Amino acid sequence: ARSGSTPTATSTLRSPSPAARRKMGIGRDKEHKRRATGGKRISIRKKRKYNMGRPAAMTKIGEKRVHTVRCRGGNLKYRAMRLDTGNFSWGSEVHTSRARVLDVVYNASNNELVRTKTLVKGAIILIDASPYKTWYQNHYGVEIGKKKNAKAKAPADADEAKKSHHVLRKIKNRQATRTLDQRLDDQFAGGRLLACITSRPGQTGRVDGYVLEGKELEFYQKQLQHKKKKH
Questions:
Q1: Other residues' Cβ atoms within 10 Å of the Cβ of residue 88
Q2: Using CA atoms, how far apart are residues 180 and 92, in angstroms rounded to an integer?
Q3: Whole-model pTM?
Q4: Is 59 exposed, middle or buried (0-12, 13-18, 19+ CB in 10 A)?
Q5: How far apart are CA 124 and CA 194, in angstroms?
Q6: pLDDT for res 158
Q7: pLDDT tens for residues 95-149?
Q8: In Å, how far from its chain's centre is CA 171?
Q9: What does DSSP assign to residue 93?
Q10: What mean pLDDT is predicted for residues 153-171?
């Protein structure tokens, strides 16, 4: 606009400064970071779409809700907002069941993710033990997870009568090599199992993992006990 004349609408609009442009959007580039020596790195280009990032999913426990995200190259990601069930593998028994996710109890990276009950890869969670308990009883013919003070039930002769001799022989052979960790048996009595998430809920829209056993189970139980003592 000339001096003395009123400024037009177009003349008052200003494009954002280079500093403001750099702040916009989430980037996954390293150009804005300092070098390992502490020296500043001079950016030789603006942001690029291939360096683009997105907000974290922060998946919570609840009725299943998954968003589809269209990504570079036309690929799709499945962003889980809420999940309440997943497939968890019982490694020593080579058996996988679909189980309900009950709670998030431990996360090595961040306690805030435990407080907010956020489902992420590597989180230690509690799952419902009943699908595994039912399978074990059908597979081995043995009831597990009995409480110490519970009264012993009378043997179900009617159920045994229904099974054929072939099935009974099969169950007997399975029982010959059957072993069950005492720590797992105690968990079955409580109706909850500790499990670890191995999938990425924010990328795949699923929460899958495995049941903790052996040394790993012992380690995380100690960590949880230590955490309880602190509080």
A1: 27
A2: 9
A3: 0.79
A4: buried
A5: 7
A6: 52
A7: 999 999 999 999 999 999 999 999 999 999 999 999 999 999 988 888 887 777 6
A8: 34
A9: G
A10: 71
- The Cα 50–Cα 29 span in angstroms is 9
pLDDT of residue 179: 85
Return d(Cα 109, Cα 126) in angstroms, integer.
18
**Which tokens hold the place of 33?**
């970071």
Q: How far apart are CA 115 and CA 17, in angstroms?
A: 40
| Residue found by looking up tokens 């009725």 in the block | 63
What are the backbone dihedrals phi and psi of residue 208, each rounded to the nearest 5 degrees, phi first? -120, 160
Q: Residue 19 — very low, low, confident or very high, per pLDDT cuts 50/70/90? A: low
Q: E strands of 9-159, at which residues?
A: 60-61, 65-70, 76-83, 85-90, 95-106, 124-128
pLDDT at 24 over 70: no
**Mean of all residue pLDDT scores within the chain:** 86
Helix (H) or strand (E) holding 197: strand 192-197
Element (H, E) at 194: strand 192-197
Contact at 8 Å (CB) between 138 and 93?
Answer: no
Q: Sheet containing 76-83: give its strands across.
A: 60-61, 76-83, 65-70
Write out the H or E segment, with its range, that includes residue 134: helix 130-140
Contact call for residues 192 and 212 (beta carbons, < 8 A): no
User: In the structure encoding, which two tokens stand for residue 217, read together?
Assistant: 């189970």
Q: How many CB atoms lie within 10 A of CB 114?
A: 17
E strands in 109-176: 124-128
Provide the pLDDT for residue 223.
93
